[in-house]
Every structure is written in C-alpha cells, then in structure tokens.
Specification:
single chain; about 400 residues; alpha/beta; 8-stranded mixed sheet; 14 helices
Length: about 400
C-alpha cells in the first residue's frame, strides 16, 4: 500500500515537471527514473503523454522539439520570436531581421529578410501574416514558408535563382498585441483587432488593421463604431501597425514585385480592389496569376480555392493592405484566405496545419515564380532582341558600305 502511494505521488510530480518544464534536460529526467527500473520507465511514459494535453506541453515537445513536429503546431509570440532568432543563428548568410515599427503597446514589429547577398540592388517579395489576431494559421504559414525556402534553396535551382535575384521580407506576426491577447485564455481566443483603446467615450478596444490603410479608407464595408469587428479607426493610418507597413512599403515600392498577405478563412485568393466600383489596371493579369496559383494549390491536396475580387466572391470593403499595395504601384497584390470554409473557421485544428501550409506554399510559389520570371526573363529576352537588332543594323550598314 505504501509502495502504491509512493508511485502515485511520483507520477503526480512527474506530471508537474513535464507540464511546467522544471526539468530542462531529457537526460536528467531519465536518470531519475532508472533507479525505479521498468516501473519508472512506465511512469515516465505516462507523465510525458499526459503533458501533451496542456498548452505548455511536455519538456521536449516545445523546448527540444524536432523540426518535423514543430511546424505542425501553433506557437505563441514568445516562441515565434525565439524561432526568428534561431533562423538567423542557423542561416547567418541569408537571414537577417529588421524592426520596422512598434505596436500600440510598444512591442516591436519585426520581419525576416531572406536572400543571398548581392552587390547590386535587388527586387523584393513582401509577405505578412497575422494582421488579424485570431487567424493563427496565418503565422503558422509564414513560419512554414521560411522553413521551406531555407530548406530548398541549396538544392532547388529555381529557388536558388530567386534567392539570388530577390529578397523576401516576411513578417510572421504583424498584429503582435492582438495575437498575444488571443493566446491569453479561451475568452480572448477569437480576438481580431489591434489593442488600442477607443476614443470619444467608447470603452471598447481595437481597430481592424485591415480597414485602416490609406486605400479608399472608410468608404465601404467598414464601421465607425469602435466596438465593431470592422472598426476602421478614427482616420487612415491611425494605428501604428498600419503606419509601419505603409512606411516600409513606401521606401521599397519600386523594388517590390509581389505583395502577399495571409489571412483565414474561406479558401480564397483575393485580388484588388475591395471597392466594387474600382478595378486594378492589370485585373486580367491578377486573375490569370491567381487562377494559376489556385490550380497549384489544388494539385497538392485537392482543395479548391476561389479567385476574384472581394466584392465578387466575399463582400466589399475598403482600407485593406492588399489594396494599398496595388494602389502604390506594386503590380501583383494578393490576399490568401486559407482553410477552411467554415467548419472550424478561425480555430483550425492543428492536424490541418501541415496540409494547409503545403498547399498554400504551392500557391505562393506560383505567384513569386511568375513575378520573378516576368522581370528577369522578360528583361533577358528584351536585351537579347535589342542586341540582335543592333548587330543586324551594324551588319546591314557594313554590307551597304561594301
């Protein structure tokens, strides 16, 4: 009876150890159990398994996680920040970071810059995730995207070529305050907006960052009630997060070939504009590229994505970052609305993270490849044609002289 009681107490202690990470090294925990023989190993196994149900999982499921299972789970902001540092540390030749703004609560907005070094000025791809706090699959995709291009650029000739010609500017979490708040507890899980306080006596918090950009701001599909989920703010760029993106894009707009912002849910690829009476000058091109991306997405797991403007396939709205990107001259601007179509909505189960990211990567890869080839291959073709025209003219001139 005394022996059973001891095992019960030990098992409980082990659950506490694994849940709260009081033991940092796997070997330490294992050595503790060897003295108990096979019974100890059984208790160890049970304790570790029971720890997986908690938000802070077993010791090595977060702190010593393998790459294989890391990208199949959602991660809080501190974990994403640590991951960004790890990407820089492991890939110092191609990865750097940049703080380009601060949130209302004075947290840094940080991006990863990824690309092979070059002596000349490079073109760029912009990607941001997590502008809406509750859309956890979006930051998960940004992490997956970074992992994939870093994994493949040394062996995939196309990715390597793009890494030489392009720099990728990737913000894993744009709405840092809101994202942290969405992890606070179950009651805040579906928080969408920023965390700035209301004005004019309104006691509600937050502005919809994707209604706050200077692109037909406040015209359609928005609310002026600060308690609304689609509250557009007191003015365009009232939010520091929207201002930070605007400032960065303004400095880089001549170099950015594609602007990609990641959202959920709905399985859609949206093209500008959100206003029903305004069309992008290259609408046909955007649709063609978007349909090609949707085809690439479907080829992975047979998931259908609908392509079109927001008024056509979703609802009209203005003040989005996507529309701002197109407005300032970035030729290719897309919003990805990832899985699913409403069964789970913003609470997409973790077992769908990997397939969602795999298919979305194929779509993003298609857009980026198109943007790259249009500039670099078209330029090469134009240069070759010009060279041949020049040589031909010179040959004709010399023939006439002879």
């Amino acid at each position: 009876m005394l022996m059973n009681e001891s095992y019960t107490k030990l098992y409980g202690a082990l659950r506490i150890i694994t849940k709260y990470r009081l033991v940092k090294e796997r070997g330490t925990l294992l050595m503790m159990m060897l003295g108990l023989g096979s019974v100890g190993l059984v208790l160890l196994s049970l304790a570790v398994q029971s720890g997986h149900g908690a938000q802070d999982s077993a010791v090595w499921s977060r702190e010593e996680t393998t790459e294989r299972n890391y990208y199949t789970r959602y991660h809080n902001m501190s974990e994403i920040t640590a991951w960004m540092e790890q990407m820089k540390r492991e890939n110092p030749d191609v990865v750097s970071s940049m703080v380009y703004g601060q949130t209302y609560e004075r947290r840094n907005i940080t991006l990863l810059k990824i690309g092979l070094s070059s002596t000349g000025r490079k073109k760029a791809i912009w990607m941001d995730c997590g502008i809406h706090a509750r859309e956890w699959i979006a930051p998960a995709f940004c992490q997956y995207f970074v992992k994939e291009i870093l994994r493949t650029y040394k062996t995939d000739t196309k990715v390597n070529e793009m890494m030489k010609n392009l720099d990728f500017y990737i913000t894993p979490v744009l709405n840092v305050d809101g994202y942290i708040y969405s992890w606070h507890n179950e009651s805040t899980r579906l928080w969408r907006k920023s965390r700035s306080p209301g004005t004019g006596g309104c006691t509600c918090y937050g502005t919809d960052l994707n209604r706050n950009f200077y692109a037909n701001w406040g015209m359609v599909g928005v609310s002026t009630d600060c308690c609304s989920q689609t509250y557009c703010g007191t003015k365009a760029l009232s939010e520091s997060e929207a201002w930070a993106v605007t400032d960065m894009l303004g400095k880089m707009r001549e170099d950015i070939l594609a602007f990609i912002t990641i959202h959920s849910y709905g399985q859609q690829l949206l093209v500008p504009y959100g206003h029903p009476n305004i069309s992008a000058p290259n609408h046909d091109e955007l649709m063609e590229v978007g349909l090609g991306a949707a085809k690439a997405i479907k080829s992975v797991h047979r998931m259908d994505y609908t392509v079109g403007t927001s008024p056509d396939i979703l609802y009209p709205f203005s003040g989005s970052s996507q529309d701002f990107g197109r407005l300032i001259g970035i030729p290719l601007s897309f919003t990805f609305e990832l899985r699913d179509k409403g069964k789970h909505g913003f609470e997409l189960p973790e077992d769908q993270i990997q397939p969602t990211c795999e298919e979305a990567y194929a779509g993003a890869h298609h857009i980026i490849t198109y943007a790259h080839n249009k500039v670099f291959y078209s330029y090469a073709a134009t240069f070759t044609a010009t060279l041949w025209t020049t040589l031909l003219a010179a040959w004709v001139s010399s023939a006439i002289l002879l």
